[in-house]
Amino acid sequence: MLFRQLEYLVALSRERHFARAAQACHVSQPALSEAIRKLEDELDVPLVRRGRTYEGLTPEGERIVLRAQRILADRDALRTEVTALRSGLGGRLRIGAIPTASGAVAQLTGPFCAEHPLVTVEVAADLQAEDILRRLRDFELDAGITYLRGDLPAGFRSVPLYEERYVLLTDASDGLAPHGAATWAEAARLPLCLLSGTMQGRRVLDELFAEAGVSPSPRVETDSVAGLFAHVRTGRWASVVPHTWLHVFGVPRGMRAVSMTEPARTVPVGLVTAAREPDSVMARALLEVARRTDVAAATERLPED
């Protein structure tokens, strides 16, 4: 049995398509198919349900993929550990983050890269919270930055980073919120541009609007943070956004950011890693940086302050 065969099987499970799996592994489709057939022969069990097209893995294949993911992760961890012992931590750190946490990611990657100059960082910054946990479980990420609402499922550990609070971006001349704060009911009456309803960040907002006894009717919805700010910058739309976004995008010209109240709620955001032994060297190094970095203080003040 070769590591390469396990890599091909894991890629096929992830891509659910022979051609895409082969492309991801930088081999031809016949080479990938033949390697998986040889693995089936070695294990004396069918791993793939084959028809005219890929139909999925067999129950045995699903179980073996889990083993293969762990074996490959342990191989990579061993390589990283040996490299760290010889010349310092090196390799690639893979971080997944919810869209609202882009500012917090930058607060961690800076000091991390300063401490570990041989490491490159790959950030997937547009993931749903459930996707982050799945990819951590499947060894596709080293760490995630996501909401810490309720108890994490078993098999994960977390470090709180900051409390996400919300601000209203509105026209500077509209006379709303003269005392620097706006209610959720007031915001619901404005022409709004918000994130799409399928995104967790939007679901959090809808819960807060509902707590205030109102339901927003946004004129524009988008699944892109950049798209949201592009609409707001035109001056035609208001929006309710996490305060951390202002550190990335700033306050659009002609607008102002005011705190949201009634209710004044926050949502905890933290760094999450898989709790397994031995743990990931990369995850352990990032956790150490997170424990020493005051992300909350860095993101708390609004840029205009």
Write structural notes for this entry.
By secondary structure, the chain is of the alpha/beta class. It has helices at residues 3-15, 18-25, 29-43, 59-87, 102-115, 129-137, 184-188, 200-211, 225-232, 246-249, 281-292, 295-300, and strands at residues 48-50, 54-57, 90-97, 118-124, 143-147, 156-164, 166-171, 181-183, 193-195, 220-222, 239-242, 255-261, 267-274. β3 (90-97), α5 (102-115) and β4 (118-124) form a beta-alpha-beta unit.
In short:
It contains twelve helices and 13 strands. It is of the alpha/beta class.
Keywords:
alpha/beta; four-stranded mixed beta sheet; 44% helix
Q: Give a quick account of the main beta sheet: strands, pairing sense, barrel closure.
A: 5 strands, mixed
Order of helices and strands: HHHEEHEHEHEEEEHEHEHEHEEHH
What is the global morphology?
A: elongated
Distance between the termini: 61 Å
Strand content: 15-25%
- The multimeric state of the shown protein is single chain
Helix content: 40-55%
| Poorly predicted parts | none
The counted number of beta strands is 13
Tally the helices.
Answer: 12
Structural class: alpha/beta
Provide the gyration radius in Å.
23 Å
Strand order across the largest sheet: 4-3-5-13-6
The averaged pLDDT comes out at: 87
Topology:
Elements: H1 3-15, H2 18-25, H3 29-43, E1 48-50, E2 54-57, H4 59-87, E3 90-97, H5 102-115, E4 118-124, H6 129-137, E5 143-147, E6 156-164, E7 166-171, E8 181-183, H7 184-188, E9 193-195, H8 200-211, E10 220-222, H9 225-232, E11 239-242, H10 246-249, E12 255-261, E13 267-274, H11 281-292, H12 295-300
Parallel strand pairs: 3-4, 3-5, 8-12, 9-10
Antiparallel strand pairs: 1-2, 5-13, 6-13, 7-11, 7-12
Helix pairs in contact: 1-2, 1-3, 1-4, 2-3, 5-11
